[in-house]
């Protein structure tokens, strides 16, 4: 099959690193794995194209008034339109972001896009935006043109109910990570700190900061998020993200390995937040403390005290007590380290994500 992947900017620039094995494969969403299986895979970044003033203002007004689907802006629409010729002849198109997927569906609906009739879209976080009125109607209309993949079960029922998506056009495909890149270190090298990583809006860093006053361990926080200036003395902020590369993937792997645990504090949501950081840390053999939310992607295999530690959303003292308990219990650290890595090998590999996606790709291609 000829499979064309559409990404937000930043992926194609990292293909040389990918080919050299210097970065993990997961943020290409199964493309390298499908390519290794003999499929013809093309990687395309979709860049925003600035609109002329009147069009931009009109589009922004439509979004603010909740007419356009979530994450659809006029520069995204123009960016998607520009790459449409490259999709001609594709057996399957995989849109890896909601704004790209909805924009593609809009051009397809208008008869501009000559692409497969039904394409695959990876959706996450749509309910972070109000879904009502015209936006809900339009989103429902466009979602029926694509096969939706979700990272977790938390969003599945809400998507079905709100948008009335037929069951055959929506599936849960839990994310996975590159278990050959994210590996445990062979020698003892823990430095005894708690590590927190992430930039998305669902990270509850206020809880983490308040918990720090009750924790006698150093906390390293890697984020681009804006934080208060008066942080506790035991909190060290490291600035970086996947896109800016201020901290390389190799550096991040080393940070995971040297931490005695990785903390993923979240506000409650049906979005499967914190998934990649949790899985990367577990693959590195580092215990994880994760907020249990409605968006937890795997309620069956992730088990408190067996391969992960859960805390409840908003519970500062509970989070602090859990971190301190783990810091003093070396046997628990070893247990979670081993079980976490085993969980990844059985349930959290990017190759498994690619397996499930390949099945959908074949179905989409066969239906054309």
In short:
The protein is built from 13 helices and twelve strands. It is α/β, with parallel strands linked by helices. The strands form two sheets. A six-stranded parallel sheet has the order 2-1-3-4-5-6. A six-stranded parallel sheet has the order 9-8-7-10-11-12.
If you had to describe this structure to a student in words, what would you say it looks like?
- GO terms for molecular function: glycosyltransferase activity.
- Keywords: Glycosyltransferase, Transferase.
- It holds the Pfam family Glyco_trans_1_4.
- It comes from Candidatus Electrothrix aarhusensis.
- It is a single chain.
- Helices cover about 40% and strands about 15% of the residues.
- It is α/β, with parallel strands linked by helices and about 375 residues long.
- Strand 3 (about 90-95), helix 5 and strand 4 (about 120-125) form a beta-alpha-beta unit.
- The chain is globular, with a radius of gyration of 21 Å.
- The model has no long low-confidence stretch (mean pLDDT about 90).
Taken from the alpha-carbon principal axes, the silhouette is globular
DSSP strand tally = 12
Q: Class of the largest domain in CATH? A: Alpha Beta
Going by helix content, strand content and strand pairing, the class is alpha/beta
Number of helices: 13
Helix and strand succession? Answer: EHHEHHEHEHEHEEHEEHEHEEHHH
* Overall pLDDT metric: 91
What does the main sheet amount to? Answer: 6 strands, parallel
Q: Could you give the distance between the termini?
A: 13 Å
Which ranges are low-confidence, i.e. pLDDT below 50, for 5 or more consecutive residues?
none
CATH superfamily of the largest domain: Glycogen Phosphorylase B
**CATH fold descriptor of the largest domain:** Rossmann fold
Count of structural domains: 2
The appropriate CATH architecture of the largest domain is: 3-Layer(aba) Sandwich
Percentage of helical residues?
25-40%
Spatial order of the strands forming the largest sheet: 2-1-3-4-5-6
